[in-house]
Amino acid sequence: xxxxxxxxxxxxxxxxxxxxxxxxxxxxxxxxxxxxxxxxxxxxxxxxxxxxxxxxxxxxxxxxxxxxxxxxxxxxxxxxxxxxxxxxxxxxxxxxxxxxxxxxxxxxxxxxxxxxxxxxxxxxxxxxxxxxxxxxxxxxxxxxxxxxxxxxxxxxxxxxxxxxxxxxxxxxxxxxxxxxxxxxxxxxxxxxxxxxxxxxxxxxxxxxxxxxxxxxxxxxxxxxxxxxxxxxxxxxxxxxxxxxxxxxxxxxxxxxxxxxxxxxxxxxxxxxxxxxxxxxxxxxxxxxxxxxxxxxxxxxxxxxxxxxxxxxxxxxxxxxxxxxxxxxxxxxxxxxxxxxxxxxxxxxxxxxxxxxxxxxxxxxxxxxxxxxxxxxxxxxxxxxxxxxxxxxxxxxxxxxxxxxxxxxxxxxxxxxxxxxxxxxxxxxxxxxxxxxxxxxxxxxxxxxxxxxxxxxxxxxxxxxxxxxxxxxxxxxxxxxxxx
Length: 483
Prior knowledge:
The chain is mainly alpha-helical.
């Protein structure tokens, strides 16, 4: 460093204009560079302080010399005590310096000793392949229990370029050299450490890897392998599916089958029941809706053939059992399809109802007719009551019309003793709609025994209207008719 007098001389030359400011600056720099630096003073260690820390005078001197190489030339008593407490010996400092430690922070030296980072460990780890690891990385390796043998074995398994963090991740998760070798032998050389750890954590063992390859699954990445294991897609599952005739499935399809319970056994059973051309979605739909091989077989044995998957699912979802199908066929409906069966079952058209309608003379009703009868309250009792008063051969719509208007069997039977000729359905509906009883019709018939049925009903209705609307005169047409 330039002396004060030299600096003043340069400043005078600049002020007198003899040199420029830039030249003056360069001259000052040159003077500073030419000034010799003071030699570092030996570390001063008081003998009393050395004795107080437990170092001998010779150890204190040796320690001072080694620390001076690191640029440490002043020591406090507390620092000496800390170093002695953690067995930072002169030999330890020398060996660490020889291995490349060049930090002038005493705390770092103490930290190395506290982390049990010995010179021997450093040399062995470097010899095993960590030539370029710094001291912080070596501390991490030591903390996690990495050994030179583990490092050599990992490299021998074909993974030569793993850094300390990757080696620690492997060691902490139990990724052994044998496992890495199995990964390599399975053809998965491009996996990174995170993927390898994920595989091991999720149970992708070497046996699983070999089994997957033997099952024909060779191009799965780590995520695919993990998903397979997580969803119970095992080598045994894959072999079973192949044996059952399902091949070339991708990962999503395999997982879908496994998640929905579509096992090789289920697949084989469905094939034996005659369902052979189903894809994965079809199989899943069958299983999810409870369509089993036994159900399919029973429906076919009951006479229902040619059903597709949607028909089978529809029947099962609506409770159409093989027993229901057989009973409907025995009752006379033999050509029912899935929609007919479902509609019948949903509307309560039972085999017993079908038999009763046929017994009442309605033999040619289809499913829609039967449903209309059931939904509209057309009963055998109603049909028989109508016949007793001479009303026959009504179609389904007429019967439903009768029931809709509240024409009951009891009301019909109450008219039997009148022995009315040409009594029609419309007569009954009109009487019920006007809340007229058999007694009303009987009184009119007694008063006018010669009137035919049309006129008699009209008379009763006119009388009902007259009561409801006093002062209203009967229709001229009616009066002309009865005179």
